[in-house]
Amino acid sequence: EVAERFDRFAPDGSPLRSWMRMVFVRVGQAADEEGGENYELARRLPPVDLTAPPVDTLPVTGDGSTDRDALTPDGGLLPEVPPAELGRLSIEAFGTPLLWKLLLEYNNVDDPAHFNGPLAVPPMGEAP
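The structure assignment produced for this chain is given below.
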């Protein structure tokens, strides 16, 4: 994420000073690649049963973004999940960002960049 604000200009209109704001996210190797930093952690995660009936649903609309103005059946606001952040959807469903592939596989999502919800959440087994 990058944002720049110009606050001083020369008489001809060219910028002389600006403020930059940048946000970086560290991305490691995939959890399913042996030797990756998350590989050992992923091996300790509880298994997800992709054949069992769903235990919950994750409200998602559009292309992976949560409808922040919609209400749950009990009248509360839906959980806020930023658009298309698969790790955050996995955290909401399982409490870890490493299981987003299983969440999409369970919901037969072929394109992680474009999908609609709600997403069904499969049950998790016991931790190894």
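Interim note for the steering committee: The chain has one domain: 2-121. Helices lie at 39-43, 86-94, 100-106.
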